[in-house]
């Protein structure tokens, strides 16, 4: 879906705004968060600290990807690193 967004943004520009038409990324992050919460709950019930940390990492992963996106934006929008990082799931407001 991200590749489709890049194509849409290339052909349909609204000044300095980009058209983002991707609900699947938001749904993926929502399901990933629910899975992380379930993993934390299972770790808490079974007294497994590793499971709790795994759940925290699962929830934090999109935020980490958003941070990587912001870091690579300084290199310019045409860098290979920026193009790779934009394919990773991250919150839509980044």
Topology:
Blueprint: H1 2-11, E1 13-14, E2 17-18, H2 23-45, H3 49-73, H4 80-85
Antiparallel strand pairs: 1-2
Helix pairs in contact: 2-3
Describe the structure.
By secondary structure, the chain is mainly alpha-helical. Helix content is 68%, strand content 4%. Strands 1-2 form a two-stranded antiparallel ribbon. The mean pLDDT is 77.
Features:
two-stranded antiparallel sheet, 94 residues, 68% helix, mainly alpha, elongated
Summarize the structure.
The protein is mainly alpha-helical and 94 residues long.
Structural class: mainly alpha
Task: Please tally the β strands and state the result.
Answer: 2
Q: Globular, elongated, flat, extended or rod-shaped: what is the shape?
A: elongated
Number of helices: 4
The whole-angstrom Rg is: 16 Å
The major β-sheet equals: 2 strands, antiparallel
What is the residue-averaged pLDDT? 77
Helix content: 55-70%
How much strand? under 5%
* Residue runs with pLDDT of under 50 for 5 or more positions: none
**SSE order, one letter for each helix or strand:** HEEHHH
Please give the alpha-carbon distance between the first and last residues: 17 Å
What strand order characterises the main sheet?
Answer: 1-2
């Amino acid at each position: 879906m991200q590749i489709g967004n890049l194509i849409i943004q290339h052909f349909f520009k609204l000044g300095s705004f980009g058209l983002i038409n991707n609900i699947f990324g938001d749904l993926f992050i929502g399901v990933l968060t629910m899975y992380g919460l379930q993993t934390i709950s299972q770790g808490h019930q079974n007294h497994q600290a590793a499971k709790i940390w795994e759940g925290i990492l699962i929830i934090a992963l999109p935020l980490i990807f958003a941070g990587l996106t912001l870091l690579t934006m300084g290199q310019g929008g045409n860098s290979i690193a920026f193009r790779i990082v934009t394919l990773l799931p991250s919150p839509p407001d980044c």
